[in-house]
Design brief:
Layout (H helix, E strand, L loop, with lengths): L1 E2 L2 E2 L4 E3 L14 E5 H4 L20 E8 L2 E9 L4 E3 L2 E3 L3 E5 L11 E3 L2 H5 L4
Parallel strand pairs: 3-10, 4-9
Antiparallel strand pairs: 1-2, 4-10, 5-6, 6-9, 7-8
């Protein structure tokens, strides 16, 4: 994930059940562990309450999942995401407060359709 010249890498799981989209742009959401995303924000994660004071395009993403009927996830628009060498320009990164994998096998979830979608750019 690249944002303002900074990069972070993490193992990601292709999850065809991840149908989460940003309600504003209708772009797919790649969900990633907050602890790994923090390296993109050397001054700390942006405060959603001060969303207008940041150059980073922040998002509030409603979601529902098994074991958690509804919730809200904060996210941001990255400069780009690279998955297996393929650049994805049209996606949002959702910030997961909890680890996505109990064994730390992966730290992000993405819908494999984002790779096909970006071929049509």
């Amino acid at each position: 994930i690249t944002l303002s010249g900074k990069e972070c890498s993490m193992p990601a799981l292709s999850d065809s059940g991840n149908l989460l989209t940003d309600p504003i742009s209708n772009l797919p959401v790649v969900v990633a562990d907050k602890c790994l995303l923090e390296e993109l924000f050397p001054e700390g994660m942006p405060d959603i309450e001060k969303i207008m004071d940041t150059k980073i395009k922040m998002r509030v993403i409603p979601y529902s999942s098994l074991g958690n009927e509804t919730g809200v996830m904060y996210g941001f628009v990255p400069d780009k995401i690279t998955v297996d060498g393929q650049t994805v320009l049209k996606a949002i990164v959702g910030i997961s407060e909890k680890a996505l994998s109990a064994t730390n096998e992966y730290n992000a979830l993405f819908n494999p359709n984002i790779l096909n979608q970006n071929r049509r750019l």
